[in-house]
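Entry 0007
Protein: Putative RNA polymerase alpha subunit
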Amino acid sequence: MVSNELDLNETLLTEPLTRENIFSLKNQIYTSKANYEKLENKIKELRASISSEQDSSVTKKNSLILGICLWISGNVEEAFDVLAGFRSDKVASYFLGKCYQEREEYEKAIECFESSKQANGDDFEIELNIAETQRLSGDPQSALKMIQKLSKGHDDNANLHYQWAHCLDNLGEYDEALTHYNRTLEIDPNHASSLFRLAYYYDLSGEDEKALEYYEKCVETVPLYTNAMINLGLLYEDNDNYEKAISCFYAVLRSYPNHKTAKLFLKDAEAGLNMRYDDDKVKKHDKEIEVLNIPISDFELSVRSKNCLERMGIITLDDLTKVTEYELLSYKNFGETSLTEIKHILNQKGLRLGQAVESDLFIDSDGGVEDNEQSKTISEIELSDECRNAIQEMGIGSISDLASKTETELLEQDGFTQAFVDEINNQLDTLGLKLHSGNNVGQDFDAI
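Output (structure tokens):
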């Protein structure tokens, strides 16, 4: 398990700077939004240092670290520009190769990996990177030959079997590919890439239950496997489980605050949830109307009670909700026995006498109690001091103002955590309210 405690300087300033340390740091960065923000702050600090530092050796070292940090942050183009000045450094050459790989300049990526390998001696991991680059370039056959050769001394390596499976996948050898994906998971049950590929395979095959199983396993790995979380969210959405879908997209945004795709899908899921809520509300309204329109004659009442109600012009249950006990008892020949009968049939349907008179109709309206609750101030609901302060810093004073916000808008505020959102949701729920779930969720993030 990767620790959430992050000390960037401890990793970046430790000599020698190794690939292993950098990948470990990347894993830590993407465990939380807070860690990602630490990385962003470190990048700002390095830029400022480079522009003001007089010592050229310090500037050079900080520039290399900046290039690495930019690559970790997903800013490939800037990382490429910085790392291009350090081709002779074995670590820089390797990550420059990763930049070329992401830029789809595969020949240059292989040149950088080869350079890094020569500087570093015999290196299995770099050989595997070269094979991966050959596969990505559209030559899975050459990649497969290289992987099979590497397997003689590294058959127990999970990444090797993953690349092997992916090559077979690209060549259309699906049964053999599944064998190697499963072999990967035998070696490393938490191998995120293999879990994702298997989930994706079952997703395409229409085997939703298996796809969900593997996606759910994949998203439990550290760091968060973004594509798996997004695909899991889409599967949930396809099954009309909008709440879980929204949760998946939020999870991506908490680790990758600038993920444009997650933001886009979040909008769709929230719109779907809102639409389902509206549909449910219409169905509920129709059901309530149906109940209220039930004729009194459908129920077994005494002749005395039926006659009294008919003379009073009370024909349906709706009519009964519009009269009070006092009005019924004041009518000639209508006594306690008849009243008990009436109360019993109303109770069966969740209604009561005088309900409409009290303006507390069974039919849900847009005003009434909710309006009274929304007029309350933030200070009148039970929230932690930290959460209340965060809300007040946004200039939100009333429950109405708070309920008009989406979870996305709240989480975009500095220092506003998911724990605060959960706290707010719990309190609003007790009032019969919830945060807005429409399409107004703000501007798109730029992609990482």
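Curator remark: Confidence is low (pLDDT under 50) at residues 359-371, 438-448. The domain at 295-348 is CATH 1.10.150.20 (DNA polymerase; domain 1).
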